[in-house]
Design brief:
Elements (H helix, E strand, L loop, with lengths): L3 H6 L4 H69 L1 H6 L2 H10 L6 E8 L6 H6 L1 H10 L15 E6 L5 E9 L1 H16 L7 E6 L5 E4 L10 E4 L9 E6 L4 H70 L6 H33 L7 E3 L1 H18 L3 E5 L7 E3 L1 H17 L6 E9 L2 E8 L22 H5 L6 H11 L3 E6 L5 E8 L5
Parallel strand pairs: 9-11
Antiparallel strand pairs: 1-3, 2-3, 4-5, 4-7, 6-7, 8-10, 11-12, 12-14, 13-14
Helix pairs in contact: 2-8, 8-9, 10-11, 11-13
């Protein structure tokens, strides 16, 4: 897009300059804001990455906590089976025997119950087995665990219903059971994996996997955590997202932000460009209309001046011969026809612009229309030194057309051929039937039209960039009216031309009835 200074310099009209300044005033701050936003995207991405990594580490921490609580619950169930008395005595052989009888053999290296410092009523609590079971089941807490003599043991504090601590359950799982049974049962039955989006791996210190819920060939994990719970000490927890990594997610988010910013910039730029283009177009049309008024004024002034001059001469009796008087009458008639044609074009254009132009279609011989127009304008054409060649075959089929509209289109083409011809003053009008259409050609040997302007000459008020064109006055409506007439008939107007080689305008009228 052009810069604001270029836009301003490209607009000679003061209103256009104001619009250009407005566009620049909106576009430049928007571009600066977009640049700042683009620069902040990497920082936002880095912040998002850290946030997601912290959240993932927290998730992994809770996974370890859930695994620890699952181990404690399993130990609590085993303690309930063994019983308070045996756990207080603490004979490993007795405890193991009871566990084997219950089908839980080989689970624990140690499982024992330690009483706290003497507490009033402790013996009564321990004598009531059911109450003891309730305590073991419900008094689970994770704070202020007394230190263990064996650092390899886990500790589970037990409190009485009143909140008073009465003891600690000490346990240690066998490595085989903790690594290969307890971990698998937890992840397959108790682990909550939202939408199965997490991939978890538990591995030993040497990297050998103990458990994983999905393969990870490249070993890529978002976060890693070394477990500190006694039963799982030395094991490593690793986690990643199943579909894409944090890095990919952050990158995708950043690209989305940049795409959104770019899209907004494009929409803003396109909107400003459309505003600027529309304003420029309106300013251009305004200038064309001003030129049109000036040209039409000149077009009206010239024939009116001639009509007035020759009419006054005739009125005052200053004509010396009848031949001279006849010549003056012909000039008055010719200029009157010229005025009529110009006024008809303006009126038709006004009706078209207002959407009130109506056509009256009736079966008509196009050859007859051509002959009538030529008969009416032959003298004027020949008076200006043009040789007119007419090729209208007989027996052409009648088609549905508006006789006056087609005649007006032909007159406009003939007038252009007269105005824009220089030394080679020849005009040929031919009618033919071809491919289900009636074709009407108007051929001249005038100045011609460049290829890049052959479509634009049918726009209202447009005049080709040529010195002869600008020296020749005109309204700039003739060809626009011709195209509208052809469109209304379901036909078309085509032009073949080259500078210095003349032009051929062809009106194509369909023979089939108009829909």
């Amino acid at each position: 897009m052009k810069s604001a200074s270029e836009l301003v310099s490209a607009t000679p009209d003061s209103r256009g300059k104001l619009i250009s300044i407005f566009v620049g005033a909106v576009l430049l701050p928007s571009a600066a804001l977009s640049l700042l936003t683009f620069n902040s995207v990497p920082k936002n991405a880095e912040s998002l990455k850290r946030s997601m990594q912290n959240q993932t580490e927290l998730n992994l921490k809770w996974v370890e906590k859930d695994l620890e609580m699952a181990a404690q619950a399993k130990a609590l169930d085993a303690a309930r089976i063994v019983g308070t008395d045996r756990l207080l005595v603490g004979h490993p052989e007795v405890v193991e025997t009871v566990l084997e009888e219950a089908g839980l053999g080989g689970m624990f290296s140690t499982l024992r119950l330690e009483a706290s410092s003497p507490v009033a009523g402790l013996s009564a609590v321990l004598e009531t087995r059911q109450r003891d079971m309730d305590i073991l089941r419900d008094a689970l807490t994770a704070t202020d665990v007394p230190a263990s003599a064996d650092e390899g043991e886990d500790s589970l504090p037990l409190t009485a219903p009143g909140g008073e601590r009465i003891g600690v359950l000490r346990f240690q799982y066998t490595c085989q059971y903790a690594h290969h049974t307890l971990i698998r049962e937890f992840f397959e039955k108790a682990f909550e994996n939202p939408s199965h989006s997490w991939v978890i791996r538990v591995s030993e210190g040497d990297g050998k996997p103990v458990y994983e819920n999905a393969p990870t060939p490249d070993g890529r994990f978002e976060v890693k955590r070394l477990m500190t719970v006694a039963s799982f000490r030395g094991l490593k927890l690793e986690m990643r997202y199943k579909d894409r990594s944090i890095e990919e997610d952050v990158k995708r988010n950043a690209l989305g932000q940049m795409a959104l910013i770019g899209f907004i910039d494009v929409i803003l730029g396109a909107g400003l460009f459309m505003v600027y283009s529309n304003v420029q177009r309106e300013l251009h049309l305004s200038r064309l209309k001003s030129d049109f008024v000036a040209n039409v004024s000149h077009e009206l002034k010239t024939p009116l001046a001639l009509i007035r001059l020759f009419a006054e001469t005739l009125e005052l009796g200053r004509v010396q011969s009848q031949e001279k008087a006849t010549q003056y009458y012909r000039v008055i008639n010719k200029e009157s026809q010229r005025l009529t044609q110009l006024i008809n074009n303006i009126l038709d254009f006004s009706r078209i612009e207002a959407g009130r132009k109506e056509y009256r279609f009736a079966p008509t011989d196009v050859g007859r229309i051509v002959n009538e127009v030529v008969d009416a304008y032959r003298f004027q054409i020949e008076q200006q030194g043009f040789a007119l060649e007419l090729d209208v075959p007989e027996g052409l089929p009648e088609i549905q057309v508006d006789k006056e509209a087609v005649g007006q289109a032909l007159i406009n083409l003939v007038n252009n051929a007269i105005k824009y011809s220089q030394d080679d003053k020849q005009i040929r009008i031919a009618v033919r039937e071809e491919n289900g259409k009636i074709l009407l050609d108007v051929i001249d040997h005038g100045i011609g039209i460049p290829k890049n302007e052959q479509k634009r000459i049918f726009e209202k008020f447009y005049r080709a960039e040529n010195s002869l064109v600008h020296d020749t006055k005109g309204s700039g409506l003739g060809l626009a009216l011709v195209r509208h007439i052809m469109d209304a008939h379901g036909g078309s107007v085509e032009v073949e031309s080259a500078p210095g080689k003349g032009s051929t305008f062809t009106l194509a009228l369909p023979m089939a009835p108009r829909a």
